[in-house]
Amino acid sequence: MSTKKEEWKDEELEQPTVEESAAEESGAETQPEASEPTAEEQIAALQTRVEELEDKNLRMMAEFDNYRRRTNKERLELMATAGERIFTEMLPLVDDFERAIAATEDEGVKLIYQKFLSFLAKNDVHPIETEDVDFNTDEHEAVTTFAAGEEKKGKVIDCTQKGYKLGEKVIRFAKVVVGE
């Protein structure tokens, strides 16, 4: 009788489980279970993750620092040129004063003109030099050219309209005649 019991136990061991039979019916192969990562593998993975986060943090800090610098620079430029439009619209008044002074010798007009120029100078608005200078496309606008000989070639011969700068920024180009 003991032999029958042993045979019966052997048969039980050889019979597939419900999961194995379902897998066989579906045609899927059984895959070995994934083993749990070891403590060393977990530590290595966490160290890699920490390095990635530190790198990301450094990049974000650098990006923020660049943003802060850029906005500060833009703010300073905005403050420096805040009145640009106002000064640009005042420049025809300067031209009118110069024409009035050329037409009359009125001391009152000259006084007002001088006060107006000092107001512009206080606000860092200065005329662009045009007398005996080389033609510079960053400050001058050539209205026409004039045959003036070799010594005047590429130089400003005459200024038809004064140009002005607000700080280092040109707010109106000087209109000039260039020698050729």
Write structural notes for this entry.
The structure is a single chain. This protein has 5 helices and 6 strands; from the N terminus they run H-H-H-H-H-E-E-E-E-E-E. It starts with a helix and ends with a strand. It is elongated and about 100 Å long. A hairpin with a 2-residue loop joins strand 4 (164-166) and strand 5. Strands 1-4-5 form a 3-stranded antiparallel β-sheet. It has helices at 2-14, 18-26, 39-80, 84-103, 107-122; strands spanning 125-127, 140-146, 156-161, 164-166, 169-172, 174-179. It has 2 domains: 51-80; 84-179, Head domain of nucleotide exchange factor GrpE (Nucleotide Exchange Factor Grpe, Chain A, domain 2), CATH 2.30.22.10. Helix 4 (84-103) packs antiparallel against helix 5 (107-122).
Helix-strand blueprint:
Elements: H1 2-14, H2 18-26, H3 39-80, H4 84-103, H5 107-122, E1 125-127, E2 140-146, E3 156-161, E4 164-166, E5 169-172, E6 174-179
Parallel strand pairs: 2-6
Antiparallel strand pairs: 1-4, 3-6, 4-5
Helix pairs in contact: 4-5
